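Dear V.,

Thank you for sending over the compound details. I've combined the ligand you provided, zinc ion, with the protein sequence from our construct and run the structure prediction for the complex. I'm sharing the raw inputs here so there's no ambiguity about protonation or stereochemistry in the SMILES, which I know was a concern on your side last time.
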Amino acid sequence: MYPRMGRIIGGACLCLLLAAPGFASDSESVLVVSIDALHPAALSAKTTPTLSALMQQGQYTLNGRSVDPPKTLIAHTAMLTGLAPQQNGKVDNDWKPGDPRVTHSTLFDTAKQRGFRTAFYYAKPKLGYLVGPAVDEHAWEADDGVARASAFFRGKGRRFVFLHISGLEYAGAESGWLSPDYLAELSDIDTTLAALFEQVRQRGTYAVVVTSDHAGHERQHGTSDPEDFKLPLILISNADRVPRLSPEPWPVTNLRGLVQTLLPPAE
Ligand SMILES: [Zn+2]
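Below is the predicted structure of the protein with zinc ion bound, written out as structure tokens.
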């Protein structure tokens, strides 16, 4: 869909173009953040000034759609494999250490093939299902995933992080989706992310994607209510070739394909 320059022109010419003034390099830092249970209607300049700034400077859609049923592990497996639950086989929402892990290739495999060191920090143990051989560093971090991601990005070279952040699903279950408590929790998450985004942008050529696995309604999620399927997607990058987000509804299974277009070829 977005052919890379090396495929359009001959390799002999590529070096000249790379040396030309103004030719920015491909992304060296790729950060994907999944804020669990984020309802797109919760995003606003007042509640989420950090994310709203990314939306203003980059691209976004509030028209994302989760898998059916819209549940955490099922949705994240669809994001990372790019396959619907019926295709990837992960149709239940459970996993515990010792159980079989994902067997399909994931976004981590692609990043690894493109020369990235990869990290996966997740706030719920069940997401350990998605730790495959292409994940260089991983940790179940209920609260410190942002700090771990920041430490990882202090290393050199191409770095890819998938960071899962928890909290909204608990605020939603206790106080309701879009309730004051829910929005206060989201404000805290937004504040915590600001320094990480700035760090990634300071590393050079970067791509940042922020999305979610599902939303909820009243004090419930994971049901067939249309609200539960909603999710946002924000994309910002200073790389040369950034795909344009379609105004069409955004299926969460598209995440892998989108991020792959942001990853440069192997060095
Ligand atoms: Zn979730």
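A first observation: Residues 1-24 have pLDDT under 50 and may be disordered.

Warm regards,
I. M.
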